[in-house]
Amino acid sequence: xxxxxxxxxxxxxxxxxxxxxxxxxxxxxxxxxxxxxxxxxxxxxxxxxxxxxxxxxxxxxxxxxxxxxxxxxxxxxxxxxxxxxxxxxxxxxxxxxxxxxxxxxxxxxxxxxxxxxxxxxxxxxxxxxxxxxxxxxxxxxxxxxxxxxxxxxxxxxxxxxxxxxxxxxxxxxxxxxxxxxxxxxxxxxxxxxxxxxxxxxxxxxxxxxxxxxxxxxxxxxxxxxxxxxxxxxxxxxxxxxxxxxxxxxxxxxxxxxxxxxxxxxxxxxxxxxxxxxxxxxxxxxxxxxxxxxxxxxxxxxxxxxxxxxxxxxxxxxxxxxxxxxxxxxxxxxxxxxxxxxxxxxxxxxxxxxxxxxxxxxxxxxxxxxxxxxxxxxxxxxxxxxxxxxxxxxxxxxxxxxxxxxxxxxxxxxxxxxxxxxxxxxxxxxxxxxxxxxxxxxxxxxxxxxxxxxxxxxxxxxxxxxxxxxxxxxxxxxxxxxxxxxxxxxxxxxxxxxxxxxxxxxxxxxxxxxxxxxxxxxxxxxxxxxxxxxxxx
Length: 536
What we know:
Layout: H1 3-10, H2 14-19, H3 27-31, H4 40-44, H5 53-57, H6 66-69, H7 79-83, H8 92-96, H9 105-108, E1 198-202, E2 216-221, E3 227-229, E4 276-279, E5 286-291, E6 296-301, E7 304-305, E8 318-320, E9 323-325, H10 329-332, H11 342-345, H12 355-358, H13 368-371, H14 381-384, E10 414-416, E11 419-421, H15 425-428, H16 438-442, H17 451-454, H18 464-468, H19 477-482, E12 499-504, E13 507-512, H20 513-521, H21 523-526
Antiparallel strand pairs: 1-2, 2-3, 4-5, 5-6, 6-7, 8-9, 10-11, 12-13
C-alpha cells in the first residue's frame, strides 16, 4: 500500500472499517463504485435485485415513466402478437365494431368486392337498397340469401353447403306489418293432368369418405292430402284430431299423461252406458265397461264375466254371490294366512270360549292324548305350576316335591309349619318304624333321664297304676329289698321306738314296738295269756 492509501485508512472510523468486515469483493469489483455519487438509500434500491448485468442493460436508454412501464403489467401477449398493432391507424370505436363478431376471416371475405343489387360470383348477394331485389339469378352457387321481397325461383334449388339451409320469411325490424305466409305448393297440373305431391327429403347420417350422401324422402303429402312420415313424428305442441276415426297401427304406445279421458264429447250429465275399453279379438272381445244399471264396472270376455286378480282391493262394501259381506276388514283379516279347511273351521261352531281362553293353546305342541291327561284334573293353574321346574328327587324352593325313581328326596333344609328342621337324617331315622302316637311321644317331653335310666324299665310289665304305687316312695333300694323275701338278718337291739311294718287291714303301716307290746299284753285282744305278766 502507498502512504496515501494508508492515510486513507487512517481517516476511517471503527464503524466504517466494520462495514468491510467479511468483504469478499475484489478490487476490480469495488472500483465499479469509483465515481458513484448515489446515496446509500439510492444504492439500497438494488438490495435483493437478482437481475444480471445484461438484463439491467435492457433499461439502458429507456425514458418511459413508471406509469408507462406499468401498462405492460399482466400482459401475456407475445412480441409477434403485439406487432399485429404495428401500423394500425383505426380508432378505438372502429376496432370495437369487431366486438362480438364470430365470423372467420374467410367468412368476412365473402362480402369483399360485393355490390348491392348485383350478383358477384363467389361473393355474398346483397339486395339493392331501393328495390330490395337481387335480380334474376338463374343457377347460382351462393352463400346466404336474404330478402324481404318476393323471391321467385323457376327452377330447382339445391342447397349444397354441408350445413343447415334455412328459409325464413318475416318482417324486418322497425316495420309494423303482419307476417307473410309461406306457401309450399306442388305442381297443380293442367287439364286432366294430376297434381303433384309435396315431398320433403332429408339426408341420412353421414357415411365414410367425402362422397355426397343421397337424400331420402322424409315427408310426403299426396294429392289426397294424406301426409306420410317416413320416420318418427314429434309434436311439441298440442295435437287435435277432428276426424271420426283415429287408427294407431303401432305395437307400443307411450303416454306421459296421468289421466286419459274417454267420451269427452258426451253432452249428457250422466256417464254413457257401456263406455270403457275393449281388447279386440277375432272371437270374443275382452271388455272393461261401465254399466249404468247398478251402477257398476263390468269385466267380461264376450258375454261372460272374467276373473280379476289384484294385489289389494279397497272397497266400501263387498257382495259375494249376491250376499253382502258385513264383516269388517279387521274381521276378515283374521283369515289372513289361514290354511284350515271348512271342516276344520267348523270345529269352532258352537265354541263359546273367549279369544283369551283359546289363546291358551297358542304354541301348544302337545298331542290330544297328552292334553287328555288333564281330563278330570281340578287343580288350579297355580297348583299345577307347583310342579313347573321341579326335579325328581330334588327339593326346589316353592315347588312340589317329587320322589326320584328310588323313592328318595334330597333337600338341604326342611321346615314344617315355618319351623326349620335342624335334625340330621340320622337323627330323623330314629323314628324309622315308630308307631307311637304324638301323645305317647309327648310322654318324653321334659324327660331328663338318661338312656341307662330309661332302660331300667326294659322288661317292666307293671301297669301305670302299679308303677304309681311308687309315687312318693322315698325308700331306698336296700329298704325295698327287705320285703323282697330277704332272709338276711341284722343283729340290733330293739327299742320301744323302733318300727316294724304291719299290714293293717290291707294298708301297710309302720308300727312301733311299744304298740306290739301293748297288743301282746292285752290277751283279750291278742289271744295271748301271759298270766298277768307284762312286758317291760
